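Supplementary Data S3. Sequence and structure tokens for construct A.
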Amino acid sequence: MTALLSLLSGLGTGLALIVAIGVQNTYLLRLAVSARLRVVAAAVVVCAVSDGLLILAGVLGVGVVVERFPVAIVVIRFVGAAFLLTYGVLAARRALRPSGATMRVEQDAHDDGAPAVGASGRGATIAPPNEHCAPARRGAVSARGRVATDGDAVGRTAPAVAATTRTTVAAGRTRTAPPGPTMRVAVLTMLVFTWANPHVYLDTLVFLGSVANQQGVDDRWWWTIGAVAASCLWFGALGFGGRLLRPLFAKPLTWRVFDGLVAVVMLGFGAALALGA
């Protein structure tokens, strides 16, 4: 019974710290609605494993080392501030000057299910909405003013029809969104957001580590398991559950609003780090 209480206590404490609007959660949500499933899964693993390692290090007493060398935290603070401010400026630029381009959605069995199939049987690319092909009809008037026969119409329009067919998908599958990042970019960016944030060391190494060690020699490990489970549950829910918001982000306006909020969060946290808050 004591072990269960310690585990639940660690779970609740971990969730209380992690469930908040921050740079890590904001970027993971962006990946959830724009990146492929394997990219989101990799980002979730990076977040959960990083938190788990930091919490475990705090329980083992590494937090004492951090407290004795505050210069390391200062260096991390300025590196993190520079990165956050840069990312915030880029997000603000996306919000103010959206590209307006449509997104090529490459789906496979590990993403949204079956791949989008065009006339050629392969993955189809997304075309702008309302782009349709008018079928050739007998007696259609050509650009030169003469009546075209079925053979002429088919012969002249076949290349255009084939080209348009390759770039047209079934109704309801058109999505407008910024291109999702690659696996490498997403993982590296998430690593910076996680490890270049000095608050993560204070929260995990110092705070969670000290609270865990107050549970006693035996119960502290149950408490640690609960805290690590909180990170896994939250990041998994945010990363994979956030994909349910994809239909909402089919609208360009939604992306502009979201990027505006991202810019506010990133610039706010970056300025706070730079000022030592």
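Construct B, processed identically:
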Amino acid sequence: MKHIVFTVTNDLTYDQRMQRICTALSYAGFKCTLIGRERPSSAPLANHPFEQVRLKCWFEKGKLFYLEYNARLTLHLLRYQPRAFCAIDLDTALPVYLISRIRHRPFIFDSHEYFSELEEVVTRPMVHKVWQWVEQFTMKRFDIGYTISKGYADLFKERYNVTFAVVRNVPLKRPIAQAREDSNPYLIYQGALNVGRGLQNAILAMKDINGLALKIYGDGPIRTELKNLITREGLQAKVELCGPVTPGELRTHTQRAFAGLTLFSSKGLHHQFSLANRFFDYFHSGIPQIAIDHHEYRSFNDAYDIATLIPDDSAEQIAAGVNNLQSDEQLYERLKANCARAADENNWQQESIALTNIYKDI
């Protein structure tokens, strides 16, 4: 059995993409080990058909966390002699490259993000330079690479003359078990609470949106900032920070929502060429969404018409998009109906074939 070791910096519990990847490869006959970190707040790991390992760290965030985690990960990886090592994004790439060369094994690079172009990176010059160096080092040395969007693949080709396959973040196609609760309609955001996701403006937009609440599912570094903003603007009755929930619970909440939010700023190429998990999760749950008019989202929406696109993530544009979706019942029902066709043609049952094709000849 071919053994593949994957590395991430999260605590594994809520990482739907890695759960899908490792499960698909396990069913295809691979032995998979997924390594992340254990936090004081980490929930017990759910059962999956692959091995899960969490490393404990003293530091929770910032430079000291990355230094400590990479050191611990390097030492831990010495325990393995798999068929290949796979780093998920730049933040685990250096340990994986080092140990893959010590073990004389292929170094696979899975770019979930354009890490060096994240807004929280490009807005800090010294941090940006460090991650650019890590990116340049990694791009010259991986043996196999794949990423989440054609936009990212094209950028990597243009910048580094490297070839990336594309494996999108589409979910498994499942029956939609829950209908929307008309008595308490709400908008939903799901995902990490990071800068550049339009969350502050989405909260402010609720001042001009009637008849809907906003539920935000997830956790991240700006959670306290968002909580303070909600209190300062007196929006406690309209906006709820729900925290992270398991993927199964999240699907239930999403299916009940009026519409979803997929919002990104224009700072950094990461946002401009991304294809976020939530973009697919919303139409797989049968709900329309308000999405930012960046390249990849526009291209997909031109084909399937499942979202209202807005030009930027300002509070005014978000409110206008949501209010138009509420007032135009014909538009809402058309987008909702189109979600089923989009899910039929874009799902993990099909996308996982591209994944297994990447790994089958290793």
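The longest strand covers residues 31-38. The longest helix spans residues 329-345.
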